[in-house]
UniProtKB/TrEMBL annotation:
Enzyme class: hydrolase
Gene of this entry: clcD
The protein, known as: Carboxymethylenebutenolidase
Species of the source: Planctopirus ephydatiae
Keyword hit for Heme: no
UniProt superkingdom: Bacteria
Residues annotated as domain Dienelactone hydrolase: 58-268
Length: 276
């Protein structure tokens, strides 16, 4: 093993200890998530979704149902369109909904490629931090338009997101209409009252108890949303940390993260049930 290979593995171990990325290589990491996808009986595919002058590479999972289904748009973490995020789309399809996970880093990599071309780790984080907010909004609006027009869809759309995607989910709520629910997972909310006044759908927040950085914003979001007359229902999951939906699924998951993940899925199931 070369010195550089050793350093990469040590860096990955440090990130794991912090509850962050399971590997420095998106394409080779999260083997447990990739195996789930490979074993899925459902129809999974990639599509390029038009968003203005851009094309957003997206991963779609279809449920095995006899009638039209709602669509859940999944906004990825700061790690981009990872195996785990694609696995979430499959788990949603298993629950009877169509799920679409757009790669918002489409076009950010070499030769106009996306997440998989950025090498993982800092490369992905730097690319995400450079994304223009207006581009993110336009990309997601394009995905929503595509979702509503799918022949197998019933026209109802829910948006969920994790970590960075949780914050983007809450921000998107201030920029779009016609969405049944917004479900930010451990993401911070907008602070401008004028932005919050534009929200047209309920926001259901999911947070780990041991996540002081994000949780410090909940009280402010609660007060601001109440003042704006909007629905905001945050739930804290006992003993869970930041990223508990991913961490709770990993082979080395703590009991608290496992339980939080199960409880969060139950809550999400309840939100989706009336839309089917």
């Amino acid at each position: 093993m070369t010195i550089s290979q050793t350093l990469v593995r040590l860096s990955a171990a440090v990130l794991l200890a912090c509850g962050w990325l399971a590997t420095m290589e998106i394409s080779q990491g999260q083997e447990w998530a990739l195996k789930r996808l490979e074993d899925s009986p459902r129809h999974l595919e990639y599509v390029e979704i038009p968003a203005g002058s851009r094309k957003v590479n997206s991963f779609i999972a279809f449920p095995e149902v006899s009638k039209k289904a709602p669509v859940v748009i999944v906004i990825h973490e700061i790690f981009g369109l990872s195996d785990w995020v694609r696995g979430v789309t499959d788990q949603l399809a298993e629950r009877g909904v169509i799920a679409i996970a757009p790669d918002l880093l489409s076009g950010s990599g070499p030769d106009g490629k996306g997440t998989a071309s950025l090498g993982g780790g800092d490369g992905v984080r730097k690319a995400i931090s450079a994304l223009p907010p207006d581009q993110i909004t336009a990309d997601l609006k394009g995905v929503i338009e595509y979702a509503k027009a799918l022949p197998a869809a019933n026209g109802k759309v829910v948006v969920i997101g994790f970590c960075w995607g949780g914050g983007q989910t809450f921000r998107l709520a201030t920029n779009v209409e016609g969405i049944e629910a917004f479900c930010p997972f451990y993401g911070t909310g907008p602070t401008d009252g004028k932005d919050l006044a534009r929200i047209k759908g309920p926001v259901y927040g999911f947070y780990g108890e041991n996540d002081a950085r994000v949780n410090a914003t909940i009280a402010g979001s609660t007060a601001s949303m109440k003042e704006a007359g909007k629905v905001y229902e945050p739930v804290l999951y006992k003993g869970a940390g930041h990223g508990f939906m991913r961490a709770g699924e990993a082979p080395d998951a703590s009991d608290a993260n496992k339980q939080a993940r199960m409880d969060a899925w139950k809550r999400l199931d309840g939100i989706l049930a009336p839309l089917k």
